Amino acid sequence: MAVIPEVSSTNPKPTTMVKNPIKNILLGIAIACVVIFCLAPVMWQLLTSFKVNQDISQVPSVYFPTRITFNHYTELFTRRPFWRYILNSAFVSIISTAFSLAFGAPAAYALARLRPWGGKFILAGILIITLFPGILLFLGLLEIIQKLHLGNNYLALIIPYTAINLPLTILVLRSFFEQLPKDLEDSAKVDGYNTLQMLLQILLPMTIPALVTTGILTFIFAWNEFIFALTFITREEMKTIPVAAAQLGGATQFEIPYGPIAAATIVGTLPLVLLVLFFQRKIIQGLTAGAVKG
Predict the structure, then answer these.
(1) Contact assessment for residue 211 and residue 204, using Cβ atoms and an 8 Å cutoff
(2) Cα of 243 vs its chain's centroid, Å
(3) Contact 110/102 with Cβ under 8 angstroms?
(4) Please, is 33 exposed, middle or buried when counting C-beta atoms within 10 Å of its C-beta (0-12, 13-18, 19+)?
(5) Long-range contacts of 248-253 (CB under 8 A, 24+ apart)
């Protein structure tokens, strides 16, 4: 009687993959080149803000400061009310971001769950508006600002920033609302929640990463916007950081204040960096959820 050999049911040991050191080295070099390419302008501005004027104007260029000075930062806050410019930018950016989220979240929920009549056409219109260049709205907004006498008023910036950021806010939040399970809303309706209570107490707390990610995008746009702030606001004490930095003057008519401009750039960028670092985990969660949805 022939004996049939037993077949082992255990899985064979997985073969260990031999790492290619050359591939890892090339990947590290590529990542380093991308990081240097992205951070080089910021590092140049940072180093320039600490250089003395002689090193800034020297030919050939002095890449690393031989003498460190803080005079450019002190001039920034002594010659002009730069703290006021920071507060102006923060006020306009925070209010416009809050309005964008306050109006965009209900609209996004309505498009994602309530399915209004003509919702596809509304969504297509929002998408077209998102792709529309904001600069082309400049002349029309200028006429509206003049008719409503909103010149030198924070509303002249808050309203356009909210209107421009609202389509993007709706599109981003709509994709997150569509990811939430429908059973949550059915259970909330059984418990007696109306639509507004369900949105505020159940759905919005679950979409905090999306709200943070969208809010930071709208905040950065409002913080960095230049054309509208330059035209609609002419009073010195109401200017925002981009306009104030662009209008920095030298000691004489022919001097370009490279040092104070670099210092203003660093001061204006630092709040955005701190904001992104503070909400880094929420941003990653929001981007990951959006990538899974896509």
Answers:
(1) yes
(2) 19
(3) no
(4) exposed
(5) 248/80
Neighbours of 49 (CB within 10 A): 24
| pLDDT confidence band for 111 (50 / 70 / 90) | confident
Phi-psi bin for 80: left (phi > 0), alpha (psi -120 to 50), beta?
beta
Task: List all residues 6 or more positions away from 142 whose beta carbon is below 8 Å from its beta carbon.
Answer: 231, 232
pLDDT, greater one: 19 or 171? 171
- What CA–CA distance (Å, rounded) separates 204 from 33? 40
In tens, the pLDDT along 14-31 reads 444 445 788 888 998 999
> Six-digit token pair at 102?
């306050």
Give this prediction's pTM. Answer: 0.80
Residues in the chain: 294
Taking the CB of residue 245, how many other CB atoms lie within 10 A of it? 21
What is the reported pLDDT for 285?
Answer: 66
Residue labelled with tokens 């660093």: 266
